[in-house]
Fold:
Amino acid sequence: MIIKSLHIANFRNFDHIQTDFSEHVNIFLGDNGQGKTNLLEAIYLLIDGESFRYTKYETLVKLDKSEGLIKSHLENEKLDYNLKLLFSGHKKEFTVNEKKSSHSNLNLPPAILFSPESLSIIKESSDERRSLADQLVIQSNRQGRRVIQDFKKALKTRNKILKDLAHEQIDREIGIETLASLNQIYLKLAAEVTILRLNALTDIQNDVEKALVQIHAGQNIKFDYKYIISDIDHKNSDLELVIKSLQNRMKELEKFELQSGVSLVGPQKHDVIFLYNGNDSRFYSSQGQQRSIILAFKMAQIVYHHRVHGFYPVLLLDDVLSELDLSKQESLISTLNQTKTQTFVTTTDVSLISKLSLSNTRVFNIKNGQIFS
Ligand SMILES: Nc1ncnc2c1ncn2[C@@H]1O[C@H](COP(=O)(O)OP(=O)(O)OP(=O)(O)O)[C@@H](O)[C@H]1O
Ligand SMILES: [Mg+2]
Structure:
């Protein structure tokens, strides 16, 4: 996928900008607080439909303005798209080639984002690792996004019923009955998401291992993962086994779900554990090894996407190159060189420009919500 151009009005600290991009490497250079990450956020919003920041929608609009827009001309699988996202404090409207559309209908490949926060995926909350698995699902399977969204909807409905029951805001009999009729579809979707994650993780495993070996200059490193459902590894489970396991767990936790008012069974509770040379990376890997795993994972996502779909996704590197040691920087740069994936890099460090000067690199200076190329 190639982002050809970007047009922004009243977004974050930008008034109005319009720019074209290189099809290979684009560097956003500037001091702290000038708008570099905001630009990556604008690109991510168009591709993904959501921000990567935990943010309220109204904070996207420039302070003192009432609405903003992000527009882009992009090419995906040889098709051209004009995307436009209009947003105000209370609504967002997405159009594709001048027609109103739901973002999920578009089925764009996810943007691969690597930021300082990514470096803590291994040891921080399982939430991040689940998101990574879901991103892989979207990358690996064209129906993946839809299945995940359907599951999220079912989860929301189920949680609402459980909450109403817990707070006695619904007739108990009616509530229990509604819950029972929803459980079947909920469990089916929960199992489908689980299997999609397992398949995608297994598909990419070799690519991650190869990238790890490359980062460590040919050293023999083994990469594997465990998929944990209620303390048990389900890596090699099939759909039937997963459904059975989820059903049993739902029976066991029925009382607690009714008490707590939330769904305690499903992929939102699973965990993905990465094994580095056979050991649980959360507890046994050094900080540097954990960084290697995440970097290898991101590099693998690029290679994997090309292997599955025949084209590269967009890569967003937010402030991360300077956080990597020299050998990791070199591995990443060599991957960029080989893959020619379109990349947007933010940095405060002017010396990175010479390191990153691959073919077709453009540098943009970002200063106080303005862009100079
Ligand atoms: N809705 C908004 N309206 C106006 N300004 C905003 C809005 N939201 C964020 N900002 C401002 O945008 C500025 C730039 O943010 P951004 O995160 O892009 O900086 P950056 O260039 O990536 O800096 P750093 O190098 O520190 O990461 C900040 O000063 C922030 O206050
Ligand atoms: Mg930033």
Notes: The CA atoms of residues 158 and 179 lie 7 Å apart.
